[in-house]
Each structure stands twice: as structure tokens, then as C-alpha cells.
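pinging the channel bc i need a second pair of eyes. not urgent but kinda urgent?? the chain im working w is below, pasted from the shared doc
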Amino acid sequence: MQGETPLAHVQRLANAKAQMVAQRHVGADTVVIAGDTTVDVAGAIFGKPVDDAEARSMLQQLSGRTHHVHTALAVIRGERMAHVVDSAAVTMTHITEEQLNWYLATGEHSDKAGAYALQGQGGALVEKVVGSLTTVIGLPLDALAEALSACGCGWKIGQ
């Protein structure tokens, strides 16, 4: 939506996904978990690239810079709904033209917010992460445990 902040954007999408699924799968014990991830470059939202040209542009803009990755989760169980957002700061290496061509040839970028996958070959383009790696990957485990607990599902990491 026009004028929406990256945090509001990612929260809205996660909530909409969860509500859409919950409407089709009604039940007191049904647990719906939905999420969305966005890359925030100084307030600009980088979602999934529509093609290789957009992926190239995104990665060129990220090269040598720090950006933020926001992952929102929405959990619904019966009448309860919990929303959480976790963020991490990611600094990319200075990406050479050769590295850019190599990475785009992998095709890994095509369905990833910001056009890279930290957990895959795109990890070679990342210099450092401040925050949870699982947030950047798209499923922040600590935030998920918090949201599940808020909905009466007593899950903790390590169980």
C-alpha cells in the first residue's frame, strides 16, 4: 500500500495470509502459522524480484551496504491471534559483476525477498548478520515460540 512502512507492510501480509487460511480451516485446535519477509533498504521495500533484471538491480543496490530484513508471523488458534515481527541487520559484501552473474545464474534469487537466500549460495554475498539468522531465512524461531505461547501452544525451542 502507498506510504506503508516496511514493518507495517510485512505485518499486514502475514496477518492476511493467516486469516485467509484460518477462514478455510476452522476449529478450536487448528493452529495456523503464516509469515512474510521483506528487505528494507532505507525505507524502500524489496520483495521478491519479478525477473532477473530486477534481481540484478536489487543486488547492485544491496552491494556493500547494510539493510534490514523484517519477518512477521501471525499465529491463529481458535479465537486467539498473535502477531510478532523480528528484524535483523544484514551487511552485504561488495558484489563484483562476476559474482553477480554467477549468483543470478543459480536461479536461487527468483523467489527470495531482496533477491538472495542467506541459507543457500547467496550466503556467499553476505558479510555479516546482526540478529537472528532464522529471521533472515524467513522463520524466526524465538518469535514463533512467543507467538505460539500467546495462542496457548506451549512450544519452546529445544523441545
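so The beta strands are 31-41, 44-46, 66-77, 80-92, 126-130. and The mean pLDDT is 92. — does that match what u expected or am i reading it wrong
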